[in-house]
Design goal:
Shape: elongated
Mean pLDDT: 89
CATH class of the largest domain: Alpha Beta
Strand order of the largest sheet: 3-4-2-5-6-1-7
Protein name: DEAD-box ATP-dependent RNA helicase RhpA
Low-confidence stretches: none
Number of helices: 15
GO cellular component, one term: cytosol
Organism: Vibrio chaetopteri
Number of domains: 2
Order of helices and strands: HHEHEHEHEHEHHEHEEHEHEHEHEHEHE
Helix content: 25-40%
Bound molecules: adenosine monophosphate
Radius of gyration: 25 Å
EC number: 3.6.4.13
Pfam families: DEAD, Helicase_C
CATH topology of the largest domain: Rossmann fold
Strand content: 15-25%
Length: 397
Amino acid sequence: MSFSNLGLSQPILDAVASLGYQKPTTIQTKAIPIVLKGENLIAAAQTGTGKTASFVLPILEKLSQSETQRKKRARAIILTPTRELALQVNQSIEAYAQHLPLKSMAMFGGVDYAPQKQALIDGVDIVVATPGRLIDLYGQRAIHFDELEVLVLDEADKMLDMGFIEAINKIIARVPEDAQNLLFSATLSNPVRELAKSAIRDPEEISITKHSASKSNIKQWIVTVDKDMKSSLLSHMLQTNDWKQALIFIETKHGAAKLVSQLEKRGIVAEAFHSGRNQKVRQQLIESFKAGEIQYLVATGVAARGIDIENLPVVINYDLPYPADEYVHRIGRTGRAEAAGEAISLVSKDNFKNLCMIESRLGHLLDRVEIEGFAPKKPVPVSILNYVPKHKREAKD
Ligand code: AMP
């Protein structure tokens, strides 16, 4: 599937190409044709799946077929729970609409009314708003809904959690009957379904379940860091977290031995587990690790493949694994039997392609963290989902 098969016109195709998107994500493939057909939709999709483009692109397509920026009227409204998301969605709209004459704005509380009112007087096509401020401006007759063609509830579950139900209901009650309604939510919980029932007539429903690889009981996150700071960051993390045990994956056996000695210099006792150690020693290490006598085991992925250790609280990828399936395999070592687990990866700029492959394999971005004192001088860019590697390489040991 490519973007050009989805019924989007050239200015939009050019915009997504200029952003480096090679093909649509799953939610985009499913949602774009439904929205273009004018159907109502409820979709279960999380942040990081490409959900924003899945509704913004077809909305742009529809709105670009006629041109009206009438004073105080919006043709599409996207409701978001937070100011940050409103700004972010508006930024995405500006990027996707870079070759179109459409105008958009972000609208949220806690700031002056005047510039927002002026923008509405000047005329916009799309308003990305938090519900409270929107209903407030509606009450002041600064915006009218009579020309509204599409209403999107983005991150509906979060909006409900934040207590926006009353404002949302007021907005829905004032939207023209024939407007198209779309609802996106990380989960379709009962309250979200209730809202959908009252707000969205005969919707199509799609659900992008995260790959089974992303077991929900495993908290996965990445720490961005410069390559030369990795070992001191790891020491810091081991010293400041209260982890009973951790399995630390590293790419090469030489790297494993070196890391163990670097940790030792900082007063942390760890053992190296790799193919350079004989079978008997390796067996012994596994027994001791299982018995809890070893707190930190630094292992190469290849050597550790056969280790079966239940219920590890933490797996740390000191190096990002290759290929992406190896990542899935590694994180499966924590959070077994529904126990909670953490899978943490240290990621530097030179790991970017590998990160793209892993996040594409998972179908979503991983949460990112910077640790005070270890923020990278060379930032790691945000991944391109659906990344296709040019060259394959082998895992080393
Ligand atoms: P979202 O789920 O909307 O927050 O999007 C997550 C990230 O994926 C954003 O950084 C988008 O720029 C990116 N993205 C969205 N669609 C695609 C695509 N088809 N190909 C590559 N990256 C994408």
